[in-house]
Input
Amino acid sequence: MRALSTASEPLILVEKKDKYAIVRMNRPPVNSLNTAPAKISKFWTALQDLYLRLYTTRLASVAAIEGHSPAGGCLLAMCCDYRIMTSGKPMIGLNETQLGIVAPTWFRDTFVNTIGHRQAEKMLGLGLQVDATKAKSIGLVDEAVALEEVFPRSEAAISKWLAIPGAMLFIEQWGEVIVSELTHFSINIALSYPADMARVRTKLLMRQETADRLIAIRQQDLEAFTDFAQTDKVQKSLGMYLASLKKK
Output
């Protein structure tokens, strides 16, 4: 579990462009496992907050996935309006069952919204991860491209979202973003958003019900995950998984 890396480099790198920004998640080494309930609770609360902010943001967002994107990384990618992933070895998916963890309701709901019930049921049950080509075929990502094309394609994609007509309001200030999850992707987020235009309203109509389901149970969800994550079996699985990541 990440909140626990000792790396000193910034976790979030922001590069502002003319009408959008590139928010790069600078994943440091994962090198420790802290089972203290307070640490687990802090991590899960941060992930809940980030999910709700990103999934329901009025701003358009494009995920540029440059490497492996398991579990929470897959979740955050699905929060974006469009996803572009590197072809080849990188894998994406909700692999929780492989670690003895039941994917939370809001993970499952977002997965079903993205790839459909049957595909989600199968992938969740087996804890499957897939490469970019397969991910594209099931709708988990929108484009599978060579590594060097990920950022150019993501910048081209965000320009399409910005081209939707409407009154534009420039956002000059950025709030703090907290990320506590293993992932290798960046997000292009439009720095300007249209006031009450069709795109924004449509997005919220499509997503708000899913977000509201988490909001209604977020305390119970937090308590359930904190308790479950402390069990010996789950801790052993997580420890083995983190050890395997160090070898990559």
Q: What stands out?
A: Residues 134 and 140 are 8 Å apart (CA to CA).
